[in-house]
Design goal:
The structure is a single chain. By secondary structure, the chain is α/β, with parallel strands linked by helices. It is built from nine helices and twelve strands. Helix 1 packs across helix 5 and helix 4 runs parallel beside helix 9. The termini are far apart.
Amino acid sequence: MPARILIADDEDRIRQLVRMYLTKEGFTVDEAEEGQAALEQLAATPYDLVILDLMLPEVDGWTICQEIRKQGATPVIMLSARNEEYDRILGFQLGADDYVGKPFSPRELVYRVKSLLRRAQPQQPTAAEAPAAETEEAASLSEGNLVIDEAAALARVDGKELPLTPKEYALLTLMVRRPGHLFTREFLLEQVWGYDFTGGRRTVDSHVKNLREKLNAAGSSAQIETAWGMGYRLVTGK
């Protein structure tokens, strides 16, 4: 089935433009012109991705993004004329997966939508591509009481699911694969966001901060350690 996308923006022209480009690519698109309407639609319909304007009437985009993150890991692209570094960083801290400034290229936005949807759906080897034993082994990673279920794209601590965004899940999976290895911010940007991503290294810092807080809150024995001026590594406490 085609991915279902919600566009929440109070400008009719922008909603119509984005809808036109997305429907041409085969996506199912819904619209909301006010924040409260967006929240009601999100409560009633499971969306694969949300394109969210910050300056919405009634309920702003910051608040909606926080509500989305309370419910799960639906990918969020923030769309805003506020392009200062502070606004972008705040967006990522609140759980946004991407941040696109206005004015924007509709073609680039569609590319970002496709890229984010691909990253949100991990690819698993088929039975023809790998022996059954190898496939089963690769479907699960663990470090201490932290377990990554790659088949379900979930992370659990002591059996309880962590509420991770797609980017947080991708970061954690990379680190669990190589515990103790030092990952530079540049490497994490390339692997998780892609070479074409226009954001800076602070994007990584914001996501790692959120991920670290979730691991701490869940009581994970695996923690993210900062190597000042260099990057991050996953370590397991005693």
